Each structure stands twice: as C-alpha cells, then as structure tokens.
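QUALITY CONTROL LOG
STEP: pairwise intake check
CHECKER ROLE: data steward
CRITERIA: each record must contain a sequence immediately followed by its structure tokens, with no blank fields

ENTRY 1 OF 2
RESULT FIELD BELOW
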Amino acid sequence: MHGSKHEDDGHSTPEPDPRSKAFPRVILSLAIVGLMVGMMIGRLTTPEERVLEQVQVVQDGLDLWFNEEPRLHGENVQGTVAIVFEAQGKTQRGQLTLQDKPVGWRLQKSEAGLVLTVVAARPLRGEWNATEEAGRWRVQVRLHE
C-alpha cells in the first residue's frame, strides 16, 4: 500500500465520485424555486375572504356592510330573527328602537360563520336582502312586529 493510485482495487482509497459536487445544490435550488412558485400561484388563486366591515343601526332595522357578496341563510324562529352569514367578523351587540320599543341584536361567531340574532319582548318578523353598492355589499335587515 504505497501511494494512493488505483491498482486492481487492492487498497483502501475510495473511488472518485463521477458526479459533480454542485448536483445536490442544483436539486435543492430547483425544489425551493418550485415551492415558491407554487405558493405564489396558490396565493393568487385563493378567493378573498368575506369580511363584515360595518354594522349600522337604521330606522326599522340594521344595515350590514361586507367586502364581498355574503352567503346567508335566515329564519324567523318563534318571534326572533336569526341570520347566518358565511363571513368573518368580530362579535358585536347593540340595541335599536322599533315603534318606540327596544330591540336587542347580537352578532356572534359560530362554526358556520357569523350569526345575527334579533330579539325583542314581543314577536318580531324580519326581511332581508343583499345589494351591491360601490364595490361593497349591503345586507338590509328590516324588522316589523
């Protein structure tokens, strides 16, 4: 075992690696670039979240402003009005007057989105519709006894 030259595999010197030392770096770089491009495409194709921006108390009801058209489902249940919005927003509560009598409303988060509940000491009925105004969506909730 004099020296390190190859002689019929009779010594402990390893064979030279025929691959380039830059090969692992190239593969890692391609993987990182692919991941970044995939994340950018995913970000561009993801729809914008529906967000409740504002709640306004108006005569005989509420106006709820959203950034996108909200999906909603509402019912008049035993004298109360309940509407579920598939949107994000913060919990809120307040009061309004309907024919000089107080009416309480509460907006709270649930698994389905936001739930608007309107309650009074007497049975209520509600009607709602959504319209687009200046790039925003307004859901008008009108109440009557």
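ENTRY 2 OF 2
RESULT FIELD BELOW
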Amino acid sequence: MSKILVKDAGGVRHLSFNRPEKRNALDLDMYRQLTEYLMQGESDNDIRAFLISGESNCFTSGNDVADFLKNSDLGPNHPAVRFLYCLLELKKPMVAAVSGSAVGIGTTLLLHCDLVYADASAKFQLPFVNLALVPEAGASMLLPELVGYQKAAELLLLGDAFDANTALSLGLINAVESPEALLGNAMAKAVRLASQPPEALQQTRQLMRPHKHRIQHQMHLELEAFGERLKSDEAKARFQAFLGKSAS
C-alpha cells in the first residue's frame, strides 16, 4: 500500500500520509511521492488547490531518522531537498489539516501553507536543536517573521512541544476544529479556494510572498548547515540515543 494516499475531487488534490506503523515518519520514498504528486497537480488544470493531512491521531512524527542517516548527502537531487524547494515554488494554494503530532517537517511545512486547521489533539514541535541539528524549510526566517524573534527563539532553541491553542495564538494555524469536523472543514476551505478565479488567486499569493528569493537563499544556508550537523559527533550521539529510545 502506498505511504502517500492521493485523491482528486472538487478541484482539490488531497494528499494524506499513510504510514501509521511509523507514526507517519517521512522516509525518502514518501518525499519522492509528495513531490511527484504536487508537481503533477501544478501542471493539471483540473487541480486548483491542495490539501495535506495525516491520520486522525498523527499528522507526522517528522523525518524517518534511520532512513535519513543512510542518505545524508543533501544535494539538489535528495528527495527531501527537492520537496522543500517544491513547496516554495508551488503556485496553487495548499491547505493543511493537523491532528496529533506534527514534529519537525510536520510543523515547518505549515509555514508554506495558505490555510492551516488543527484539532485539540495537535501537538507541534521543532526539536532540531534538541537533535543537534538546525531548522529547515526556511523556518529560521519564516518563523521569526511570523511570531517575532523571542517566541521563535523559544520554539527553535528549546524545542518544546506546544498545543493547538498556542499555535492559534501565534498565528501558525487559522482555527482549532473538533476532531469530527477537522478534515471536512479543511476540505471545504480547499474546495472554496479551488472555486476562486485561478489566475487572480495565484497572483494574489505571489504578491503576498514577495521574498521568495530570500527564503530560497535561507533554505540553501539551512541545508548546508543541516548537512554539516548530520555528520557531527554531537548529532551522532543524539541520534544514537533517539534510535535506542525508539527501539525500546
């Protein structure tokens, strides 16, 4: 069974993480599929918006650490790198529905979404420094711009988890929904976006994102530092402890 489920309806391409046995941890194959489905949707005139979601109890627990360590050369063709730059280049809007854990990339990818909804079970976390790494997806620029430097420093340097109400107060999400209504309401918003005049919608998105080249440069700097950190003794020790804890 595919680890990324895809369904097209009402002008919306719905992508859903489907690896419950690993709490939807993203491996390289999942990154490849996500990028492929997004790029296909971008070139399909019948697709006018994207919706991304996970399971009812887990959005994604972040990267599959073991898989990532086996493929740690973060060149331009690395599946995770291609996915991150794909997010930046999307012209069509993206909506996210978050339930349960949204760790690492599970939170940073939300910074590239247009509308984000969560239920009360959602737990967001940016534990990069905790793992002796640095942020990715432009989060080191986008998060301080969104929430202010001091709050971004708290979230990135301490790496503590925070709940949906905190995410709402920070402006990271649009609303906290009931678990029963979350996916349906997020889909309804995606369908509304898909029904808008597409050229006006996409041009408005571009105007609201005037610093794409700055973010692209920041993502490049992050990935350089991330690749160096992956090879550091500090990170190796943290990963060894993390993998040992996960196995027990």
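INTAKE CHECK: passed for both entries
DESCRIPTIVE NOTE, ENTRY 2: The longest strand covers residues 4-9.
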